[in-house]
Design a protein that fits this description.
α4 packs across α6. The longest helix has 21 residues. This protein has two domains: 121 residues, 3-Layer(aba) Sandwich (Rossmann fold); 191 residues, NAD(P)-binding Rossmann-like Domain (Rossmann fold). It contains twelve helices and eleven strands. It is an alpha/beta fold. The structure holds nicotinamide-adenine-dinucleotide. Nicotinamide-adenine-dinucleotide binds next to α4 and α6. This is D-2-hydroxyacid dehydrogenase. Keywords: NAD, Oxidoreductase. Belongs to the D-isomer specific 2-hydroxyacid dehydrogenase family.
């Protein structure tokens, strides 16, 4: 059995080596290149492919894999939006993903960023850079005094709720589907409007669907408390960035931590030093002392990467051995 893994980063290599040591019967080849039209030929002769990239898996790549007799593609991430469902089905490719790799990684990061906003660390960092070591007037706020509105109580939202409770914050939550334990604790409000009216912090942990795109728009910000903090480590288009900029200008929003942006592929995962970038909203937000931008790194921990490698290789091997995997993604 032979598996080729594309786009393997330096930080993934020890986990691939560990998996290989546990599966001596499998021949594993790793390449740093992404799975592109120019590199798909490397897969010839292999039984399965493991990959992770933001770049599209082109229709030509899928057809070429099928032409080589390869029908198993295991992604080391969750998202399958860079695959064309029609081409996946036409070429009879079975695709698996890793839907849950470390909810704590994202939850802990969200909380960290809220603390950074409340304790104004960006402002102190800049003061230090100017050798200004005075503490006033940047007075902070305490997390235990906040009413944290968690939108989305799935894997990540639930871990975040537990952490917030540990800090002594009051937590309220909104989800289309109620988790029985949280329901029993009485954490749910009945509507987003109710959450907007009560929360002093709003943190997003829901997926991006057409119905959730621009969930936080001008109308939503208008319903929130003055001085609310916004945390988004979910998906950029959940927030209308123009509306957020207006809300920051007016003081409606006291601060925002954004691990994801509407147009993040223009910026994130590139070295932009000395390069021009046509993304005015990014420059506007990044220039603010009360906005923290991180390049979609909430997930990026040793535990998460280990699980992404292990679970994708396990799924690919399972496909090769049995033709099926419970991690198979439906494109219907
Ligand atoms: P999940 O599927 O376990 O939970 C999502 C929750 O959202 C579910 O409880 C669902 O009922 C709820 N939901 C869906 N649509 C809704 C709506 N319209 N209104 C209210 N609630 C709704 O997902 P998860 O693992 O907790 O991940 C949440 C999101 O985090 C993902 O969709 C992804 O966008 C994001 N994410 C970000 C990173 C990162 O590095 N920043 C990493 C992984 C995931």
């Amino acid at each position: 059995m032979k598996i080729i893994a594309y786009g393997i980063r330096k930080d993934e290599k020890p986990y691939v080596a560990k998996w290989q040591a546990e599966h001596p019967e499998v021949e594993v080849k790793i390449v740093e290149d992404l799975l592109l039209d120019e590199t798909v030929n490397l897969a010839q002769g292999f039984d399965g492919v493991v990959a992770f990239q933001q770049a599209p898996y082109t229709d030509n790549v899928l057809a070429t894999l099928a032409g080589y007799g390869i029908h198993y593609l295991s992604l080391r991430n969750v998202g399958v939006d860079n695959l064309n469902p029609v081409a996946v089905k036409a070429n009879k490719i079975k695709v698996t993903n890793v839907p849950v790799y470390s909810p704590a990684a994202i939850a802990e990061f969200s909380v960290t960023q809220l603390l950074n906003l409340l304790r104004r660390t960006k402002e102190y960092f800049h003061k230090f850079e100017r050798h200004d070591y005075r503490w006033a007037p940047e007075i902070s706020h305490e997390l235990n005094q906040q009413v944290v509105g968690v939108i989305g109580t799935g894997h990540i939202g639930r871990v975040a709720i537990n952490i917030y409770k540990g800090f002594g914050a009051k937590v309220i939550a909104y989800d289309k589907f109620h988790n029985p334990e949280l329901e029993a604790e009485g954490l749910y409000v009945d509507s987003l409007d109710e959450l907007y009216a009560q929360a002093t912090v709003i943190t997003l942990h829901i997926p991006l669907f057409p119905e959730t795109e621009h969930m936080l728009d001008q109308a939503a910000f208008a319903k929130m408390n003055d001085g609310v903090y916004i945390i988004n480590a979910s998906r950029g288009p959940l927030i209308d960035e123009t509306a957020l900029i207006e809300a920051l200008d007016s003081g409606k929003v006291a601060g925002a931590a954004l691990d994801v942006l509407e147009d993040e592929t223009k910026v994130f995962n590139h070295d932009m030093a000395g390069k021009n970038m046509d993304y005015p909203e990014f420059w506007n937000l990044d220039s603010r002392e009360n906005v923290l931008i991180s390049p979609h790194t909430a997930f990026y921990t040793d535990v998460a990467v280990m699980n992404m490698v292990k679970q994708s290789f396990d799924a690919n091997l399972e496909l090769i051995q049995t033709g099926n995997s419970e991690k198979e993604v439906s494109f219907d």
